[in-house]
Amino acid sequence: MQQAITLDYQGKILRGMEHVPEQEAGQRLPAVILYHGFTGTKLEPHRMFLKICRRLEALGIACFRYDFLGSGESDGNFEEMTVSGEIAEAGAILDAVKADPRIDPERVILLGMSMGGLVASVLAGERPHDVHKLVLLAPAGEMYALVREVVDGVLAIPDLQLYDYNGNLIGRSFAEDVKTLNVLQRAKGFSGDVMMIHGTKDPTVPYQVSLDYQEVAYGGRALLHLIEGADHTFNKTSWEQDVIGKICDFLR
């Protein structure tokens, strides 16, 4: 069953959606937590997160997807967002899901897309015993390299506190934070099963970033599925269905 949910985090409300299959009395279900990307929401483009959740629910897997603070329908403003802040919020969501009496705390999977993949990889690396498996869709990796021009432009002007990025205001705190993350090293601590999916024509996060994850963070053991010609958010029905099929096969 799909229904709206909320989570109080440090006095602000994270708003989300849960998809929980019918279960027998006393049964505990595996669960997937989905983390959206930079400027994204709990739906993501062409409702892909919703479609993933419905397919997984049909397999008997519960799903939870929230808007981070400052995104979608959650409290806060986008200009207050930092990657480190989202990692902390992701941890609070993980705690809530693991404490849910309907969920098997030993079978909680993280799934992140783009910057949400960065968030999921770091959280899994720092809390490996709390995460069963990891799915990364076009993960952002060392994000500073991808947004260097914007970040350096913001930091070069001492009095500049906000930067207009396609209608989203980026705060100075985001720019300062993203330079310090050291993502691949922080992701190394996760030793469970990992699957990554990336488009070969991704103009936002080149697929070589997933190759870096595979080599540096996961020692070559992570599964990597490349979708020929696909863009950053898999904006074609055949690409989307490929992504969803691979996720279901990995978690079935």
Automatic annotation (TrEMBL):
<protein>
    <submittedName>
        <fullName>Alpha/beta hydrolase</fullName>
    </submittedName>
</protein>
<dbReference type="InterPro" id="IPR053145">
    <property type="entry name" value="AB_hydrolase_Est10"/>
</dbReference>
<dbReference type="InterPro" id="IPR022742">
    <property type="entry name" value="Hydrolase_4"/>
</dbReference>
<dbReference type="Pfam" id="PF12146">
    <property type="entry name" value="Hydrolase_4"/>
</dbReference>
<feature type="domain" description="Serine aminopeptidase S33">
    <location>
        <begin position="31"/>
        <end position="144"/>
    </location>
</feature>
<dbReference type="GO" id="GO:0052689">
    <property type="term" value="F:carboxylic ester hydrolase activity"/>
</dbReference>
<keyword id="KW-0378">Hydrolase</keyword>
<dbReference type="InterPro" id="IPR029058">
    <property type="entry name" value="AB_hydrolase_fold"/>
</dbReference>
